[in-house]
Amino acid sequence: MIELTRRQWIVGAGAAVAGGLALNPARLASATALPTPWLVNIAKRELQKHGSAVRYHDRVAIADYTLPSRDPRFFFVDLQNGTVSSHLVTHGRGSDPDHIGWLKYFSNVNGSLASSRGAYVTGDQYYGSNGLSLRLKGLDRDNYNAEPRAIVVHGAWYANPKMIAEQGKLGRSEGCFAFPEAELASVLDRLGAGRLIFADRL
Known about the structure:
Order of helices and strands: HHHEEEEEEHEHE
Helix content: 10-25%
Number of helices: 5
Oligomer: single chain
Strand content: 15-25%
Largest sheet: 8 strands, mixed
Structural class: alpha+beta
Number of strands: 8
Radius of gyration: 16 Å
């Protein structure tokens, strides 16, 4: 598959190259959202890798932790019509110990309170300490502890847009994907059970 490098997308160059998706320092400085074609390519790549563990292939969610928590960085990629929509999402306290609003570290270790990179498949909904939540199973070596760590999708007051207006950033979770309370129902409806979430610094 032919993919454009991140630098080529950002500066507007038109050449295509074959290869992986390495982190681009230029994008870290500019913190711009990836263009839709790039997100579609990532979604297809992860489905190709983990498709046997995923029931539905119509939609993939991608959390781009290159972006700060003040920016919408959880993307729904609709592979049927090629559209992308975005939501605010938190990262874990252990990933941002100084609470600067940027993810600095990933961890798969119990008790780290950090976000983990990698692919997840969504499971069943349940009511827990954070209200209505969605279970996740980690599919990669960097997030296989998602279930014992209770890494899930849920809503939280500290993920509400008001936090950005007051502090310039969202609050932090304990490693979960926490969303604005008003958006949780929509997020859960679009995720459902048996879909793929991919999280990384892209």
